[in-house]
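Our consortium's second objective concerns turning raw sequence data into structural hypotheses that experimental partners can test. To show how far this objective has progressed, the report includes one record in full. It was chosen at random from the queue rather than selected for favorable results. The single chain below, 675 residues long, was entered without modification.
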Amino acid sequence: MFDLGENHMKSIRRSLWPVLLSALCVLGPAAAQVSLPAAPSSGRSDLGALDLESLLHTKVITASKFSENLADAPGVISVISQDELRRFGGTTLQEVLERVPGLSIASAYFTDRSLVAARGDQTKINGGHILFLINGRPTREVLEGGLITDLLEAFPVNALEKIEIVKGPGSVLYGSNAFSAVVNLITKKAEGNGITVSGFGGPQGMAGNSGQVMVKHGDFSLFGAGQFHQMPTWNTNYVLPTSLIGDPVAPVVPLVQNLTLDDRGDGAYLGASYKNLTFMSSFTESHAPSFVRGSIASNKWRRGFADLGYTVKATNAWDMSFNATYTRNTFDNFGYPDIGRDSQELVLEWTNSITFSNWDRLTVGALLNHVEGQETYFGIDPPIQISDGSRPGGAFYAQWDHQLTDTVKLVGGFQVNKVEGTGVNAVPRAGVVWNPSAHVGVKALYSGAFRAPSINETLLNHPGLQGNPDLKPEKVGTLDLSVSYQANRFQGALTYFHSRQTDSIVVDTTPVRWKYENLGEATFQGFELEGNYYLRKSLFVTGSVTYQRNRDEDGDTNITPVPNVGVKGGVSYRAENGLTLSMFDNYQGGLRGFTEPTMNPGPTAYHMLSSNVRYDLSRYMGSRDKGGVALFAHAENLANYQVWLPDWGNNSGDTMPVNRGRTVYFGVEFSLGRE
């Protein structure tokens, strides 16, 4: 069956070098020349040719649905640029997102094994408080309300141009699940004709391959990418938690199980455009184990995503777009409790961006959506359907940007939405963006968000747990206060946040037959300090320090399986001869409140140290303009910490395996044409 690997986590001390890197990033402006960054040149895929100003002059689109400077955007935003993606690499999207300030890896026991938590918020046993976008279009799982394992483990990283992460609520523009963060996966676009393929492998069965193709002909462009990976074999012992011994509703299992854990994924993306018409589609599939009441089973997640869009310029100042977006998710569990799920969402949206003057801009839109899903229990013969439902919904939203003075911008917005079976719901946004100089920015923002009840939460008909059709949406209100600084070599920001969640949907265990209810409240607050610094074009340093604390309505603290402290730092050298050397360390502190003795290894602090090496041989082969060859090596978790985290949602008081330890692979890349 599965191997959880013997996870003897050692007690560790915090390493100093991520802290020093963070300090260097914060102090970097003292050594940087101060000049206004220039706009980046477009259509240049050779990052080595970009100057320092272009590398740090950041444009973002997610916060307002139109392109604007990072300093002007009404949100606290981290950007993983194409330069950083190439320098530090990464096998999966989760590995890439671990480097983002304020994001932490997390896991749950059953239906969503791979998670990222924003600002400590992992109150759910799934990813329902983070909304993922693909080029600005939402992709949601609607039966449970937010499964994201397949995206984190199987979305092709080689398809990405950059990633924008808006920390805090985003429901005004993006609706349900844009609760604690919005992650916008922005893919590459064809700027020429070319093809790239790569293969890699390593010890203990590590293997993978990837490829991408670009076609550009007149007004038509096409970009496609795919990736497969098989992680190394992980053999481990899993000890049945004391609280689960003799569980009357679970199968009898040995007290000690020797397991071989499966961890693999494959994904593909395709994007095409012709004049004002666009189409994109993606597929992701992930395989990993689950840990339900001591029984180890195999899970398979699948997601199909498609979007058809059309843009039109109604007037010189009025841009209009129409989108039809479809997501289908399936989940299959092979073992106990032996269930299968199938759900889908269709969104029809009309979006407008209207520029009234140099001082005023309005984003306004409306949408209709339809969700449906079913869950089947295969543990008896014949199988029975324990959830089956559908519902329509709709929303209207608007956001106004008003330039009050040359240095002060006011932002206000709202979304009004209606889901069948619930009342009309509204969430607000308001803020002030002040740029007193070309290099200093101040933001004071308040935003609300919601997560609509899922199909299972309203309609589930399980013998031990029932849905509640009277549920209200979960709500959150977040205050962000941020100060940022940017020069031609440096970007840095310090942010304080305070979030209050209400009407949290939880399982009420007081009746004989458990039931979903709006019972929970939680408060999160903390700070994020982050910086990026190019000492020179070839040498890049990045670092961050984050802290969060939380409590519920009863005054209990540390209510989620996320550390209070995170320290991250990376350094990368990219030489003109084609050699790139990079290292990144992600330190996650111990889990307060989850350190009681366990049968399995405890959830102690750990360092996730990674390295990436790439050597482009094209210049030595005289083929740089027509293609080339590159060698690469990547290592994750060099310190070899086997990470075990609380089996969140299983209520056993014990842990489960999450990271196998050191993973190393070597590969070669071949390319023809130009990107």
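The partners drew two points from this record. The two ends are 43 Å apart (CA to CA). The first helix runs from residue 17 to 27. Both points have been shared with the crystallography group to help prioritize constructs.
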